[in-house]
Structures are given as structure tokens and as C-alpha cells.
Design brief:
The chain is an alpha+beta fold. Helix content is 29%, strand content 31%. The protein is globular, with a radius of gyration of 15 Å.
Length: 170
């Protein structure tokens, strides 16, 4: 998968992105306190996510992909669409993003979110898209709300902790 926004390239996992992803997942406490399990992951957990959840080819559209700055080629973070059943519908998709803190506050989360909203509506022809964020992650919540998603409920997840679920109907 190779897609783009105005400022970002969205690409399938490539071997040269292993270390930046590993460092983000397993060493970056600042970023990971608001993502996934609310902590850095073990190497085993990271390798499991890499093997099972990242898109490794150019044909799939469901799973995690890497984000690069179009101008510099710098690793920004990762994003993706994953199946979820927060609202009891097996066909729902959740979009998410995890950005390195060097790229916070620059509008990238909103840009990525808008990409997924448009992709789910126009390419996948979904009737809605969902997003979930830690109640403490105010920056992500603000980005999600800017995209027109509405909070619908709070859930407790064994592996992700408490999450606010947002929905946008098309």
C-alpha cells in the first residue's frame, strides 16, 4: 500500500522501518503511555503486532501502515484501519494513529484521520467509521472531534484499558 496526504506518505511496512517502529513501540514511553497498552511493549509483543497487524504488501487496506514525511522521508509514526466491534457490528472499522512526539502539534493527526474518513467512505464504501482514544489523550480526542466524529460510549478493554469510542456516519 502506498498512499498519501498533502504532507505524508502512507506505506506498507518495509525492512528499513523496523528500527524506528521498534524504538517507538518498545522504547518511547512518552508516546506509548497513550497508545495500545498504555506502556512500551516487550520485543515479543512488538514482533507479534508486526507479524499479525502490519500490512506487508500493496494490496491489503486493513491493518497498520507506516507514515513518512513526504518532504524529508522521516519516520513519523504509524496508522491504520483495523476491524472492531465496539458497537456490536462485525463490519466496523476503527482508524488510529500513533505519532512520534517530534510530530505532535503539527496537524498530522487530523490530516491522517481525514485520509481514513475519506478512504472508508469513498474507497471501502463503509456506512461509518470509528475511532477510539484513551480518555487522558486530549490531543487525539481533539483531532478525532475535528473530523466530525461524535463520542458514543466508553469501553473497558483488557489489552487497551479504558477507551472513548467515537463514530462518524456517512
Amino acid at each position: 500500500m502506498q498512499l498519501e496526504t498533502n504532507r505524508l506518505k502512507i506505506i506498507s511496512f518495509e525492512a528499513e522501518l523496523f528500527m524506528p517502529l521498534y524504538q517507538l513501540f518498545c522504547e518511547n514511553k512518552t508516546v506509548m503511555q497513550s497508545a495500545f497498552k498504555g506502556r512500551t511493549l516487550t520485543k515479543k509483543e512488538f514482533l507479534g503486532i508486526l507479524a499479525n497487524d502490519f500490512i506487508l504488501n500493496d494490496t491489503d487496506s486493513i491493518g497498520f501502515v507506516c507514515i513518512l514525511d513526504k518532504t524529508t522521508g522521516d519516520f513519523v509514526g504509524f496508522t491504520g484501519l483495523i476491524p472492531c466491534n465496539f458497537l456490536e457490528d462485525e463490519n466496523d472499522l476503527e482508524f488510529g494513529f500513533v505519532l512520534h512526539q517530534d510530530f505532535w502539534g503539527k496537524g498530522f493527526a487530523t490530516e491522517i484521520g481525514q485520509f481514513w474518513v475519506d478512504f472508508a467512505k469513498n474507497e471501502l464504501q463503509k456506512p461509518r467509521i470509528l475511532a477510539a482514544a484513551s480518555p487522558k489523550n486530549h490531543a487525539s480526542i481533539n483531532a478525532i472531534k475535528k473530523l466530525g466524529l461524535t463520542e458514543v460510549k466508553e469501553i473497558a478493554s483488557n489489552d487497551r484499558g479504558s477507551r472513548l469510542v467515537f463514530s462518524k456516519e456517512f
